[in-house]
Design a protein that fits this description.
By secondary structure, the chain is mainly beta. It is built from one helix and 16 strands.
């Protein structure tokens, strides 16, 4: 007698082991079809019934991983994108390839970014950050548009005070002398100069 939890229509004899085994369906695996197969953990495994099959759903890792696991917290927060483009289920992708990262391998690993026009399913979606370490806080830039803050888009570096630009390779307004950007001599509060770096300072 086979116990297949409603996920098999047949239970043939294995001529090698001389044992009956479930002929699993619904993307289930195991001797008793008691778990979802690897890569099919978008929703938790459930026993099938006469009315509902409870098919294990394939994970959506944008082609960057075949491994995933189910996380109830992710499901509760509706953070996982399924294969139908809906945030439903709790799958988390494992070991994302091609410098990708994130629950769906939709973002990029530290030090890489995905340009706005590049889709997550692109064969090589992530580009190396090109931060100028003389003016940037680190070599890590904004990984994708969903992480953009304070006017920074994907690929923009986080600049030190006095620096600006996508690569932080330019002095910000009121600073001059790249690569050592220092405050300019004129004060916009105490002078009529529109550009504090344009001498001479004219008192207001």
């Amino acid at each position: 007698m086979c116990i297949c939890y409603g996920h098999a229509k047949a239970c043939p004899l294995n001529i090698i082991t001389k044992k009956l085994h479930c002929d699993c369906e619904d993307n289930t695996c195991g001797e008793s079809c008691d778990r979802c197969c690897p890569g099919y953990n978008q929703k938790p495994w459930m026993a099938g019934t006469f009315l509902t099959r409870h098919i294990c759903e394939k994970c959506n890792c944008h082609g960057k991983s075949e491994e995933c696991y189910y996380n109830q917290t992710v499901a509760d927060g509706k953070l996982s994108l399924n294969i139908n483009g809906v945030y439903e289920g709790g799958r988390v992708c494992v070991a994302c390839s091609d410098n990708t990262a994130g629950i769906n391998c939709q973002s990029c690993a530290a030090g890489y970014y995905r340009p706005r026009e590049v889709r997550p399913e692109h064969p090589r979606p992530c580009t190396h950050c090109d931060c100028d370490l003389r003016g940037s806080v680190s070599s890590v830039c904004v990984p994708d548009e969903s992480h953009g803050r304070a006017g920074l888009s994907a690929g923009w570096c986080h600049c030190k005070q006095g620096y600006t630009g996508q690569r932080c390779d330019t002095c910000a307004f009121g600073y001059a002398g790249f690569p050592e950007c220092r405050p300019c001599e004129c004060s916009t509060a105490g002078s009529t100069n529109l550009d504090p770096c344009q001498l001479p300072c004219v008192l207001s």
